[in-house]
Amino acid sequence: MVFQRGTFLLQSGTHAQPNMKHLHIVCSDTCPLGGNLIVPVSTFYDGCDNTCELDVGDHEFIRHLSFVFYANSKVVLAARIDDLVAQNQITLKPDVSGEVFQRVLRGICLSRDTPPKVKKYYGC
Length: 124
Hints:
Elements lengths: L6 E5 L9 E6 L8 E9 L9 E2 L11 E3 L5 E4 H9 L3 E4 L4 H13 L5 H7 L2
Antiparallel strand pairs: 1-2, 1-7, 2-3, 3-5, 3-6, 4-5
């Protein structure tokens, strides 16, 4: 089971790079319905959502300027995350610091790219 501030790598490769993994941050403990709000982190590029930028030092996996990809945030069943861990499709990583976590959380409601159902789930 994962808890808020936890992070994991999820295989999310492309056809050209099938083994690529992206860092995901768990933004909530498991709710009564069994879900966790997760947000992915991706490489920064011109025109991306810059609501929450992350850089070297914000997490051990981040090696260059990155951003929280709020457009791809979602609520995932904790049981599904546990299944993916058991199948070695998810690699658990260390938690983010409290300061980084607060920046990520603030961005959920601030980003214009966060899906409306995620904002509703989070209480924006």
